[in-house]
Amino acid sequence: MTSFMSPQSSKNQQKFSPSENGSLRDIAHIKADNSLTPSSSQKFSLPPTEYKNFNIHNGMLKCSQDYAQKSKILIGLLEDTCSILKQVSETNKQRWDLHYPFIGIKSPHRIHRSIIDSTPIQTSKFKQNVHDRLHTPADMSSSQEFNSKLNVLKLDLKRGDTSSAETVFEDLDKSAIATLLDRRLNQTAKRCESLHARISDTSSKVLVAGDVNAGKSTFVNALLRKEVMPVDQQPCTTLFCEVLDVQENDGIEQIHAIKDIASYKRTDSSTYTVIEWKELYDTIVNNEESGEYTQLKIYTKDRRNAQESLLHNGVVDIALIDCPGLNRDTLKTTALFARQEEIDVIIFVVSAENHFTLSAKEFLSNASKEKAYLFIVVNRFDNIRHKEKCRRAILEQIKEVSPRTHEHAKDLVHFVTSTSIKIEKDGDNVDNTPHNFNAIDQIDNDAKNIKDFSNLEESLRTFVLKKRSKSKLAPAQHYLDNLVTDIGILIEFNRNIAQKENDKANMELKEAERAYDKLVSDQKSAVATAEKTETSVCEEIQNFTRNSLEKAIENVGKNVSCEFNGLLYIWGYANDLRDSMLDDIQKEVVASEENAKNKTAQCIKLIQDLGKDLGVVKQVNLDRMYTKPGMSISVDIEISDFIEFDLNEKFSEGLGFASLAGGAVMCAATRLDALSCLWKLTGFVGFNNMRRLALPLVGLAGIGIITYVLIDAKHVISRKVARKIRSHLKRSDYVNFETNRIVRQGRKKIRKVSDNLRDQFRKAVEEEEKKQFAQRISYKKSEEAVKFFKKIFSQTEQVAECLEDLLDNNEWEDYEETLVSN
Ligand SMILES: Nc1nc2c(ncn2[C@@H]2O[C@H](COP(=O)(O)OP(=O)(O)OP(=O)(O)O)[C@@H](O)[C@H]2O)c(=O)[nH]1
């Protein structure tokens, strides 16, 4: 046998050591009880009946030992399964929303089928089983069954009358399904815990269910050889009546009527009402209407000895639970009752006259899923004329509802007449010793019926007592077997999804890394291009503006023409000239601004194009780019602007002009060449006379010069104003100022767009980083999920293998042989 014990379960194995194990306590009890286990010397002196009982007990002892061993293993497996369920539930809550394996309508098989890895799982039977279940084609014709791949972990979803489970399921989102699954996992873990408790417990509960009036109460009374349960032609059992040994109630025969079974405590009288024996019938019958109580606990004394008593026999304490007859109203409650893990055996009583009703079939098919084996009593057989035909028909029906029970029909299906058994009634003093009890010849009934009932009892004892492994361990084994397969399916299904998601996340991550690298390189080159473009465009604007302005300043006044209205208006003329010159410069400034605007617009377009893939491009308004005026030029007209005083530059010229002007005046006056006239005049008048003439001549020349200045004033003003403007602009560093202003405005706009581009890239990079981070998390998450599911699958597989060995060694016949050999 493969040994799989987690550290936790190994620890618990110590906790459940043989000395503390309930089953071994039974064995010790049996050994200590001399009245039950005679010594070998006593054995041969026993009368035949007691010798038979002694053999039965030896058989029981063997069974108990075997039971102890098996229960110990099963307890370990239950603990391991619980730990697996808890791990899965924790992962479901914290790390990975579990997917539910089912075949839906809206999402047909192919969706989920595609998730499942189609390569067959090799080796172990468990793996094969899981694989087969996952790949079984969906039975879409099945309208009743929700097409879940699970059995024990199946989610029970129903909403209203019209919605099918599939519809409800497909309306739920992933996290809702995970929550439902979590609830189911926790319920299942609790179920495992209570199975664990049940296995450690020595008491056994036997549920007697069946159709209305099938004779359940009569059968229970016959088993007890005592009229405990009221019997009526009319349906009378309306609530669950549990018959227990008086020892369970400190030896006091009593009836406890319980309203809320969950809060029932035998030692707390506030949790029940004590009913008198004579009130029992009325209480049961009246409860149908009042619905006051949910359950009765009937503590009664079985006067027969341990070998004969069913309630208290020294090996296991049995409680019989008589159920209300099955009908539409009671079916659900009884089915729920039967599902309780405390119920070790279900005895189903069917009337031979009626066969199985629909309610009976539904109950049996559900119960056989839970308990694996059912004990079937076909009662009222005395009323059947064609007994063999009836037997065959009923066995056929059993084959349909519980094939495993049918396989062991010889032991598990009995055709009897409960009324043929003599029972102790109120006041009767029946001798219940085995000797007296076996004196059945005295009972005035059909001997055959009594023999059949006796066989039934023998089988029932075997089933409940000698085959405890089957009756007590089998439900747990059966449940665990279904559960581990379910866990395997759930885990394998989710592992496949996690693997697919991991592959996808890996691909996406690589893709995202590539996109990120490209984006970062695009960002670098775009930023560099933007910077370069900005610099070159600003340079262009600068050069253009500087050249234009310099040229304009240099040429100022050259093409200016204003109307000269004579010397009287010379002041106005000078002002007009100045304004006109400044206008010309201003025009150049505006032209430069226009040029800068155009260049800026082109540059912006170019930069924006660099980031057009990153999102919406912001429109930039350049209309208000040069709304603020540039440097204001203030040049005042002065008197000096009318006279050429610039001796450094213009003096000689001016003097020459003046002399020439004087000469010209004289020439004009004498029509003689000034020099020859002067020479001739010197020769003619003599030097002394000339000296006397000099002063008037110079005066004359001065007058000539002044006359010339006044006549040339128009040009002088123009020159002087232009010169004045030039020097003013030079002094105020006008060209640089204006060039910088125009360039600065352009740069400002371009920079804004460049900054925006940088911002867009930064955001895009951040987005990409975030995306990558999320993908990395998703990749990690799915990777961890795959690892986790692999680990859990392997743990589950080990539990399954261990369980398989246990089931293999648990053949029904093994016990028969044990008993025969004893
Ligand atoms: N002939 C015959 N009558 C039987 C047999 N067993 C029970 N009865 C009769 O069937 C009737 C109903 O018996 P109950 O034991 O009350 O049946 P029940 O299944 O407990 O009935 P409810 O609890 O009300 O569903 C009674 O009149 C019994 O005497 C039997 O084996 N043969």
Helix content: 55-70%
SS field, number of helical segments = 24
Tell me the strand order in the biggest sheet. Answer: 4-3-5-2-6-1-7-8-9
Count of distinct structural domains = 3
Strand content: 5-15%
- By CATH, the architecture of the largest domain is named 3-Layer(aba) Sandwich
Q: How far do the termini sit from each other? A: 27 Å
Task: Give a list of the ligands.
Answer: guanosine-5'-triphosphate
The CATH homologous superfamily of the largest domain is named: P-loop containing nucleotide triphosphate hydrolases
> What class would the helix/strand composition place it in?
mainly alpha
- Unreliable parts: 1-54, 105-116, 140-146, 429-444, 647-674, 811-822
Question: Would you count the extended β strands for me?
Answer: 9
Query: Rounded to an integer, what's the Rg over CA atoms?
Result: 58 Å
Approximate shape: rod-shaped
Mean pLDDT: 77
Q: Give a quick account of the main beta sheet: strands, pairing sense, barrel closure.
A: 9 strands, mixed
**CATH fold topology of the largest domain:** Rossmann fold
CATH class (first level) name of the largest domain:
Alpha Beta
Keywords: Coiled coil, GTP-binding, Hydrolase, Membrane, Mitochondrion, Mitochondrion outer membrane, Nucleotide-binding, Transmembrane, Transmembrane helix
Organism: Rhizophagus clarus
Catalytic activity: GTP + H2O = GDP + phosphate + H(+)
Protein name: Transmembrane GTPase Fzo1
